[in-house]
């Protein structure tokens, strides 16, 4: 049996490029679903009456539904025809709207390699001071099975390091992995 770390680093309120999805109310035809998307785009509040989530995140994963997020979604939707973003999910018998590569404020997590809290603190310090924060680590959006992060950029690294630097106690960002 391998000896795995039991610690995970959680970094909160990080802007990340990811894919979004929402279940549409239209259940009859693709044409009706596309009309619904057009109505959504013309509405004052894109989020009202809909449960938006990050693709692959059962818990949603979006932590701020604000004007900036709405503008990002609308910008992406305006680049394509509605029928290019509407999909029929036959297993759930519903239409979904998928919006790729939108900047979303969310929480990230990464399993650490350390086997004690002291080691974990040192590992985080080393990570923050390394040239590549992502090399050898499986970063993902908290609660997402598929990872969810589209772009591992220098800007994302700076955001993570900055956010960790704002923490009063870095220990508050370390959690113990729950094992089944």
Describe the structure.
It is built from 4 helices and 6 strands, in the order βαβαββαβαβ. The chain is an alpha+beta fold and 180 residues long. Strands 1, 2, 3, 4, 5 and 6 form a 6-stranded antiparallel sheet that branches. Strand 3 and strand 4 form a beta hairpin.
List the secondary-structure elements in sequence, H or E. EHEHEEHEHE
What is the general shape? elongated
- Compute the CA-based radius of gyration: 19 Å
Class based on secondary structure composition and strand pairing: alpha+beta
Comma- or semicolon-separated keywords:
180 residues, alpha+beta, 2 domains, 4 helices, 6 strands, 28% helix
Entry summary:
This protein has 180 residues and is α+β, with helices and mostly antiparallel strands.
Layout: helices, strands, pairs:
Layout: E1 7-23, H1 30-42, E2 53-54, H2 67-78, E3 86-89, E4 94-111, H3 117-128, E5 140-141, H4 154-166, E6 174-176
């Amino acid at each position: 049996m391998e000896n795995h770390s039991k610690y995970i680093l959680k970094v909160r309120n990080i802007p990340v490029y990811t894919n979004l999805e929402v279940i549409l109310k239209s259940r009859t035809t693709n044409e009706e679903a596309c009309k619904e998307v057009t109505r959504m785009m013309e509405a004052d509040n894109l989020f009202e009456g809909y449960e938006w989530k990050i693709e692959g995140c059962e818990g949603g994963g979006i932590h701020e539904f604000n004007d900036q997020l709405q503008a990002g979604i609308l910008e992406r939707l305006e680049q394509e025809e509605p029928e290019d973003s509407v999909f029929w999910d036959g297993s759930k018998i519903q239409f979904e709207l998928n919006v790729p590569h939108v900047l979303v404020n969310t929480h990230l997590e990464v399993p650490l390699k350390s086997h004690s809290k002291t080691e974990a603190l040192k590992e985080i310090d080393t990570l923050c001071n390394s040239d590549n924060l992502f090399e050898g680590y499986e970063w993902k959006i908290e609660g997402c099975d598929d990872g969810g992060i589209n772009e591992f950029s220098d800007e994302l690294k700076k955001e993570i390091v900055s956010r960790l630097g704002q923490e009063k106690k870095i220990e508050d960002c370390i959690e113990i992995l729950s094992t089944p």
